[in-house]
Amino acid sequence: MEIGDKTVNIEGLPRRKVQHVLLGLPFDLVTIVESATLIEQAISSKKRCFLSTPNINFTIAAHEDNAFYQSVAISDLSVIDGMPLVWLAKLMGFPVKERVAGSDLFQFLSEKHRDKPIKVFFFGGESGVAEKAHEQLNTHSKGMVSVGFYDPGFVSIEDMSKDEIIQKINDAEADFLLVALGAKKGQAWIMNNLTKLNVPVISHLGAVINFVAGSVVRAPEKWRKLGLEWLWRIKQEPNLWKRYLKDGWSLSWLLLTKQLPYYFVNKKYKRDASQNNAVNWQPNTDTLFLAGCFHANNLEKLDALISSTLLTMRPQLKIDMRGLNYIDGTFMARLLILQGHLSVLGCEVVILNLEQKIKRLMSLAGVLKRFKVISG
């Protein structure tokens, strides 16, 4: 789909993975193997896969920085990286099977022998680390080969987005661009250059470049399973303790004021909801009318209608929710992803006639603030 000189990938909008909202972010509830398969498919088909791996720090930052949040919302694959998030998701009853850490996913891809190795380009890291990662990957990997690296130094996003730098990356013909600039700066750089990069898979994996280079030793598996990797990282990088302390306080506040209240309110509303739903599209007003109950198991009709609607829509998609009596986290994840993709085009989703109980659900889930809401 195109508006002006911008395009959006609508292929990823229909339901093709299990999605849910956790702490206001949309997540794909996939395993490491499933994630690797999606990445391999993107590489073989030359279709873009912008991979985000939110952990606690990522999630807290998304609440504080809308641009950072948008980078997750438009991602083609957003996985749960962090045991506390996995535990919380399971507590909420979400069908999450395992943590998908960016480092585990990269290692899985690297250790899988293949006749045609995945071509990797390292971008960023501290001085000399990208080159070291390049050398180490080519020495030890069974399933990957590094085709280049670039250290932009401590410069602005604009300076590291110059045409000659993007051209250097594109000329390497990599399959996987690993970015390591610090989470906020890295996601911002990707967003700034996403349409100019000819690399199928792009992801900010800041710690991974250090692990591959050998400049930082990753926590033992037992520590990771116990959710203590943060403690190991403080041992390796003492300056991280301030970040972890701040994130811990912020997470506690979100749990007490949003996520736990959402759990109980959602449980009550779900029990009382009708199971029928209706979808009606009125193209003359660009309005989608929804009624009844929408949850993970009955979104097929809505997904199909949204996909076809996007092909002809104008800059604003209105969704009238007057008749809704229940929506779950999967439905809200769809809304966030839709809003994220349309925002790239300068478009927006406008919610009309929001029922009080739906408003409460969306507010506690951390979703409501992402939308323009007009009352009837």
UniProtKB/TrEMBL annotation:
SUPFAM superfamilies: SpoIIaa-like
Pfam families cross-referenced by the UniProt entry: Glyco_tran_WecG
Keywords assigned by UniProt, alphabetized: Glycosyltransferase, Transferase
Domain STAS residue range list: 275-376
Tagged with keyword Glycosyltransferase: yes
GO molecular function: hexosyltransferase activity
PANTHER family cross-referenced by the UniProt entry: PTHR34136, UDP-N-ACETYL-D-MANNOSAMINURONIC ACID TRANSFERASE
Record's protein name: N-acetylglucosaminyldiphosphoundecaprenol N-acetyl-beta-D-mannosaminyltransferase
Organism listed in the record: Methylophaga sulfidovorans
